Every structure is written in structure tokens, then in C-alpha cells.
Here is the input.
Amino acid sequence: MNKSTTRSGLIGIGTVGLLLMAVSILALLSSCTKDSTDKVDEANKQKIESQSAAISKDAKDDAVKMAEKMVDLAGMNITARSLSEVALQRATNPQVKTYARRVLDGNRQADNELMQLARSLNLQLPASLSSEGQDRLADLKNTKAGTEFDLKFLDELGKVSKKSASVADDLDDDGTTEAVKAFGKKTRKSLEAQEDAIKQLSNILN
Here is the structure.
């Protein structure tokens, strides 16, 4: 092998190595990308902590925790809406389709109330699916149409409803304003009723 070939070979190996390194760095950066809810949490936290020094640290900490719960609830509302939109198109059982429509209508009203509440507190809410929501939606879309799909929709929606009810309960207990507490209580009751309806539908399909 002559020198030029050797040199060319070394350059080729070096280029490949750099390319692999670049790909690895991009993959690492991608994995570290902030979730949609994380970005909003950070913005709300900065806004709360920059408030008047007359507000105690404990009060600010409580406000941050409450804001995080509101962000979580908004994110799960987006997930429930996205799941229901797909179910409205692909569910085969008429009762499941009807329920998906009910969820969308109820979700829209709850979203409006939560957005108004956040606006009154000068807080941001997420506008897109969280990474967890994206995973749930992808799983549903990849499920074969028919009873399997209908049950998968109810299962995913049930999990989201249960988590949302828990967060709403936290807002009822730990909200820093009476308006937040009232919203938390109302939302928890609504979600608990939703969980019962999901169980009933699941029993019909099983």
C-alpha cells in the first residue's frame, strides 16, 4: 500500500469517526431536550421568584408547586383531547365514539376554565403534548382498529384521568387561592365520574 493510499485511508477513518461523534452529540442533545411542560415550569418559576422581595420564600415555593400542578393538569388535558380525537375517527363501537365526543366537549370547557385561572395568576400553560402524551398517542395510533383499539383508548384515557384526578386533588388541598382550590375540587369530581364511565364502557367491551 503506498503512502497516498494510507493517507487517504486515515483521512477516511478520521472523517467517519468525526461523523459518529457528531451523531452521538446530536443524539445526546436530543435526549436532553426539555419537555413542553418543563419549559413552561421553568418560565413560571422564574416569574414567581422574581416577584417582590416582600413575598416570603415559603409563599413563592408554594406558588411554584401550585403552578407545576396546573401545568401538569393542562398537559394531561391535551393528552386526553388528543386521544379522544383519534378515537372519534377510529373507534368502531358507537358508545366509545359517543364517549370520545363527550370527553372532547368536557375537556374544552375545563381547558377554558384552567386557562382563565392561569391568566389571572399570570402563569403560562403548555400548548403541546408532553413526551408522555406523545408516547400514549403513538401507542394508540399503532393499535389495530376494532375492539382492541377501543379498549386501548379507554385504557389510556383511564390512566390519564386517574393521574389528572390526583393532581386536581392536590390543587384542592394545596392551592394558594380559593379559586384554585374550587377548580381543583370541581375537576377532581368530574374526573372521578369519568373514571367510572370508562370502567363501565370497558366492562361492556370485555
Observations:
- The helical segments are 3-31, 36-49, 57-90, 94-120, 131-141, 147-174, 178-205.
